[in-house]
């Protein structure tokens, strides 16, 4: 149990450091990663990071990040984020996906892997 708690604290520290970095470098945090109580949640921050990677054409890197998070923390929120991630990719046309070395088949494969992880 100590390792799980230690990992949680480490993630919190990284998240705080990234937030401070945004503030220091005069970059504002998007409002969609802050919940109603003014806190940055891990799930919201994950979704933000995935969207940013996809917008920058780093779909493979985004998918790697998604699976790292899902495998380390199988929450309902991460499952929803995974589905939304693949839904976003599915809205892209094949030529755009190919431009970023991705395909519709990889979307299907990724969804199948997520379903297997969550037992759905």
Tell me the layout of helices and strands.
Elements: H1 2-24, H2 42-55, H3 59-72, H4 76-90, H5 94-99, H6 104-118
Helix pairs in contact: 2-3, 2-4, 3-4, 4-6
Description of the structure:
The chain is mostly helical and 120 residues long. The protein has one domain. Helix content is 72%, strand content 0%. It is built from six helices and no strands. α2 runs antiparallel to α3, α3 packs antiparallel against α4 and α4 runs antiparallel to α6.
Descriptive terms for the model:
120 residues; mainly alpha; 6 helices; globular
Q: Estimate nothing, just give the exact number of structural domains.
A: 1
> How much beta, percentage-wise?
under 5%
Low-pLDDT regions: 28-32
Based on CA atoms alone, the radius of gyration comes out at 15 Å
The dominant shape is: globular
Say how many strands there are.
0
- Structural class of the helix and strand makeup? mainly alpha
Alpha-carbon distance between the termini? 27 Å
Mean pLDDT: 79
Determine the number of helices (DSSP H or I, runs of at least 4 residues).
6
Main sheet specs: none
Q: N-to-C SSE series? A: HHHHHH
Q: How much helix, percentage-wise, in residues?
A: over 70%
């Amino acid at each position: 149990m100590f390792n799980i708690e230690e990992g949680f604290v480490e993630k919190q520290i990284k998240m705080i450091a990234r937030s401070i970095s945004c503030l220091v470098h005069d970059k504002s945090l998007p409002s969609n990663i802050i919940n109603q109580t003014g806190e940055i949640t891990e799930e919201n921050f994950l979704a933000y990071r995935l969207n940013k990677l996809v917008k920058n054409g780093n779909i493979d890197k985004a998918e790697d990040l998604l699976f790292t998070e899902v495998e380390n923390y199988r929450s309902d929120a991460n499952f929803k984020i995974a589905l939304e991630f693949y839904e976003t990719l599915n809205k892209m046309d094949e030529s755009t996906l190919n431009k970023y070395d991705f395909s519709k088949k990889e979307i299907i494969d990724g969804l199948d892997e997520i379903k297997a992880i969550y037992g759905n």
